[in-house]
Amino acid sequence: MSPEEFRASAHQVVDWIADYLRDIREYPVLPNVEPGHLIDSLPSSGPEQGEPMETILDDFKKLIVPGVTHWNHPRFFAYFSISASGPGILGEMLATALNVNHMLWKSSPAATELEQVTLGWFRQWLGLPDEFFGMIHDTASMASMHAILAARELASPETRLTGQHPPLILYISEHAHSSIEKGAMVVGIGRDNVRHVPADAEFRMRADALEQLIAQDLAAGKKPFCVAATLGTTSSTSVDPLSAIAEIATRHGVWLHVDAAYAGPAALLEEHRHILDSAARADSLVVNPHKWLFTPADLSILYTRRPDVMKRALAIETPAYLVTAQHERALNYSEYTLALGRRFRALKLWFVLRYFGREGIAQILRGHIRMAQNLAEEISKDPNFEIAAPHPFSLVCFRYRGSDDENRAILDRINSTGHAFISGTELDGRFVLRLTIGNVATTAEDVRSTWRLIRSSAPRATGSRV
Ligand SMILES: Cc1ncc(COP(=O)(O)O)c(C=O)c1O
């Protein structure tokens, strides 16, 4: 592709992106397509001859976009809603254009050092200790897997060489994200050695139950090695009692990992800073700017106070092709990660942090939390609905006062309209609806119109359709 052809096509692409972001509300949040729709509309084998960019871009608009679920839509309220903000998209575009692989400092000094600087800024904003070493992973799942690996290394250093280890036990609450259990499996801990600590009535890990399980395992000759606390659980954003858990972890000498993938950024706000009060005692902590920090997927940050252990867990004899001159300021990030290759992810985060600034980010997060709290108030005023869990952040769990099937039917009805996308989960054995706010463009009216739609979709409908 010649520079001139690139320039012309890139202008078209940027125009399309700008229009897309401007007109995003005109798209149905969920596409109205059947499984296989795209496979059936594309040729079954690739083109022998190259095709003009015009044709490819046309097909992108005609064939791809209609099958897209618009995570960038301001009424995407499912799972944990996210947004790829303008500055984040621009940073991503430039990172793609540079296409560096900063596995080593030498293979891209700027990418390596920007990651250090950006994660340092963010660490200060979260109030985490200076000795926390930060690294970027693609997802929280990978970040947590690395934390579990380092925990295993600390508890059983010989495993790296022999593959053998004593019966190591990991503890999570029954509401922890599935990625922790998967990480434990990948690291060779085994699912049977993951204990699900019971939660209290507000879906938080019970510290007394953790203590009891650890005592039982010790009595049975097992070796507790890691506990993962969650700040902002996936189903309900409950916050595990970090201080009590840290106390137990310290007493038993087990690695404390904190999963703050969603709620971590809330600690930027004075009124929510306390969620990270005891995080300074953690051995590792994960937070996802690609969830609630307007950064395009993917970008997850793992902080650890034990980078030495992380490095040792992955230590190999450096192959000749990766040997570079040593310098105390030249950090080789790939020594701390399973993946050798590393994309320049810090660039988009740097764009986001600089464009919005700490105060700008705090204002948007506060706006999301306020909209969620207002929604919760409306829900609790409606006799046909009930709040299903405490809602400290920007997620509200609620249900129609009826059967699980009726709630599932409401969910399907909402989502089939294309107006909004909400999701569901199970709490206390009952199906509940989840509405989360995390998009930079979401307005109070987006939330209100969705609530009107939910009310009018209930069997005993109140309110009017949108
Ligand atoms: C609390 C929590 N931890 C971890 C994850 C996994 O995140 P990722 O998709 O980045 O692996 C999620 C995903 O929603 C989550 O809610």
Report on this model:
- The protein is an alpha/beta fold and 466 residues long.
- It is 42% helix and 12% strand.
- The chain is built from 15 helices and eleven strands.
- The strands form two sheets. A seven-stranded mixed sheet has the order 1-7-6-5-4-2-3, sandwiched between helices.
- Helix 5 (109-126) packs parallel to helix 13, helix 6 crosses helix 12 and helix 13 (346-381) crosses helix 15 (444-457).
- The protein starts with a helix and ends in a 9-residue tail after the last helix.
- Pyridoxal-5'-phosphate (PLP) binds next to helix 6.
Name its key features.
466 residues; alpha/beta; seven-stranded mixed β-sheet; 15 helices; 11 strands; 12% strand; binds pyridoxal-5'-phosphate
Radius of gyration over all CA atoms, rounded: 24 Å
Morphology: globular
Strand order of the largest sheet: 1-7-6-5-4-2-3
SS class: alpha/beta
Number of helices: 15
Total number of strands: 11
What letter string, H or E per element, gives the SSE order?
A: HHHHHEHHEHEHEHEEHEHHEEHEEH
End-to-end Cα distance: 47 Å
Our estimate of the beta-strand percent is 5-15%
Q: Which residues form runs of ≥5 with pLDDT under 50? A: none
The ligands found in this model are: pyridoxal-5'-phosphate
Main sheet: strands, sense, barrel? 7 strands, mixed
| Proportion in helices | 40-55%
* Average pLDDT taken over every residue: 96
